[in-house]
Amino acid sequence: MSAVSSPGLSDVFVECRLPADGGERYCEPGDDAMPCLALYRVRWLRTLPSTDSRCVLCHFRAPDAEAVRLALRRMQIGIGGLWVDAQSWATVRSRNRSHGVAGRA
Predict the structure, then answer these.
(1) CB crowding 67-79: b at 16 or more within 10 Å, else e
(2) CA 81, CA 37: separation in Å to the nearest integer?
(3) Phi, psi at residue 90, to the nearest 5°?
(4) pLDDT digits (tens, 9 = 90+) for 42-101
(5) What's the CA gap between 88 and 4, in Å, rounded?
């Protein structure tokens, strides 16, 4: 899947930090989340979990960052950081490899 934005949509990257007990949901949505994402026109593309399972970086395509924030909030998923069209996917992957984040497409 390409990181090139579709017309009218932005690439949005979300960082989620997880507690050590793994009790909190994170931004990789399951089938039950798809209607909520669709409501805000948000599409989940991929997730990069950290090697220690304490953090994930999720890549979404949406009309804007606010749509992603609202969808995740509605699903009760907390976020640590959010970036819009900040970098190409290749640059994000390269940066995160150096910080111990494993890639999964």
Answers:
(1) bbbbbbeeeebeb
(2) 19
(3) -60, -40
(4) 999 998 888 877 788 889 999 999 999 999 888 888 788 888 875 555 555 565 565 555
(5) 8
Count each helix (H run) and each strand (E run) in the chain, helices first.
Answer: 3, 4
Whole-model pTM: value is: 0.67
CATH topology of domain 10-97: Alpha-Beta Plaits (3.30.70)
Distance CA 97, CA 29 (A): 23
92, 103 Cβ separation under 8 angstroms: no
85: region left, alpha or beta (phi > 0 left; psi from -120 to 50 alpha): left
Beta-carbon contacts of 34 under 8 Å, excluding residues fewer than 6 positions away, are none
Which of 92, 95, 78, 103 lies closest to 3, judged by CA?
Answer: 92
The torsion angles phi and psi of 72, rounded to 5 degrees, stand at -65, -40
**Which residue's entry shows tokens 């805000």?**
40
